[in-house]
Write a structure and sequence with these properties.
By secondary structure, the protein is an all-alpha fold. It has two helices and no strands.
């Protein structure tokens, strides 16, 4: 009877040992899986940081290129605007000269079309000169 009880206890202990062994192995497997997952996440994070740095470098390079292109375009536009303003000023000056020339030609044409008016004006100018000479002569005679 003792041997049977001893065998029964031995069997129970063996079952309990097997159960505990399975629980410990399962816990060790879970711990190993958790540790592997933590390592995998850490490596993923490091890779992500490297990728983020590479992307940040690329983004900075693109932004720098875009800013340089925009600045170049502003400079070229400013140069074109200055040239255009100078050309417009030259055009305005040409138009003013053309207007002055047309006005002068118009006056000359009016004189050519009405020579009588021109002759009268010239005669009046000569009369005024003669009249001035006569006044001077009269005054000169008075003074003597």
């Amino acid at each position: 009877k003792r041997a049977e009880e001893h065998e029964r206890v031995k069997g129970e202990l063996a079952e309990e040992f097997a159960k505990t062994k399975e629980e410990l192995e399962a816990a060790a497997t879970r711990e190993k899986d958790r540790h592997l997952e933590t390592c995998r996440r850490a490596v993923g994070r490091m890779q992500h940081i490297q990728l983020a740095k590479a992307f940040d470098w690329l983004a900075e390079a693109v932004m720098g290129k875009r800013e340089r292109r925009e600045m170049s375009q502003r400079v070229v536009q400013r140069m074109l605007h200055t040239g255009l303003a100078a050309a417009f000023d030259c055009f305005v000056e040409g138009v003013e000269q053309l207007r002055a020339h047309r006005e002068t030609v118009s006056r000359a044409v009016v004189r050519w079309r009405s020579p009588l008016l021109s002759e009268c004006f010239m005669a009046w100018g000569e009369y005024m000169e003669i009249r001035e000479e006569e006044k001077r002569a009269e005054e000169h005679d008075r003074v003597k």
